[in-house]
Amino acid sequence: MTTLTVRVNKITQEACDIKSFELRSVSGEALPAFTPGSHIDVHMGEGLIRQYSLCNGPDDRDRYLIAVKKEVTSRGGSQTMHEVISEGDLIKISAPRNNFPLEPSQGPYLLLAGGIGVTPVLSMARHLLAQGIQFELQYFTRSIAHTAFHAFLSGPEFQGRVKFHYALEPEGLRAYLRKLLWQYPENGSLYLCGPRVFMDMVETTAAATWPPQAVHLEYFSADPLSLAGEQESFEVRLARTGGTYAVPAGMPITEALAAHGIHIETSCEQGVCGTCLTGVLEGTPDHRDVYLSDAEKKSCDKIMPCVSRAKSPLLVLDL
């Protein structure tokens, strides 16, 4: 995948555990265009690549703005961004990609964000505001101190469009969502992003009145319960290059193949970004990703080998 080099122009402490990073072109030229909901891959060396949503609006062509929450259970990405990356550093990134596009709608947009899930939603809000399109942003966090971009979203241009919610207990949140989502506005669109528990609650509540095609969401990681599900060993056969290889229980397909010198490009390693998408010619995948749609999973002709496994004893991959 082609990369470009950018300079870390500015780092801002946006909340007690969240920093934003303003990235600018080294040459001073405009950066590749993007659409609301896009993300970039950030390369941190030694094969460490992570995806971060762009927070600025698509009309802002001279910079990319990302925000990173320092995770207690960091796999290296957020820790590196918070503790290693400094202003002035040159880093490599990918061009923007969009798995969470803002679709045209004749009705109002309702944007819901939980915690760091505000990042892609903020780009959507900036775009809708600039276009004069009706929207409402509901932002749920632990406290003001944990609310990224609080000052910006409290500005006069967002007055009447943004509502903050702090430290709601599960039952309180559930009751509020029922009130918020009890009626579907004609041609309305709902976009949500945040922790899985939050998103599952929103999705379940909206399902009572909102049509499925009106609800759009983006996960940051696959379902931990899915990843921790029962695992059996199986084999993969490579149709084009030949060879059959065992995949032990508890080992990803990508790792099993890498042990034999066969490398599939990966990035998130959580079944989110789509980088490792691989064709399946025979066998039944055990899908554990959140990238493929339900229809794509039912077709059984592709797999995300960084997290998914096999229900059949053998998978034949288009490799």
Automatic annotation (TrEMBL):
Top-rank taxon, per record: Bacteria
Annotated transmembrane regions: none
InterPro entries membership: 2Fe-2S_ferredoxin-like_sf, 2Fe-2S_ferredoxin-type, 2Fe2S_fd_BS, Beta-grasp_dom_sf, FAD-bd_FR_type, FNR_nucleotide-bd, MRET, Riboflavin_synthase-like_b-brl
Domain 2Fe-2S ferredoxin-type: 234-319
Keywords tagged on the record: 2Fe-2S, Flavoprotein, Iron, Iron-sulfur, Metal-binding, Oxidoreductase
FAD-binding FR-type domain location: 1-103
PANTHER family cross-referenced by the UniProt entry: CARNITINE MONOOXYGENASE REDUCTASE SUBUNIT, NADH OXIDOREDUCTASE HCR
Protein name per its UniProtKB record: PDR/VanB family oxidoreductase
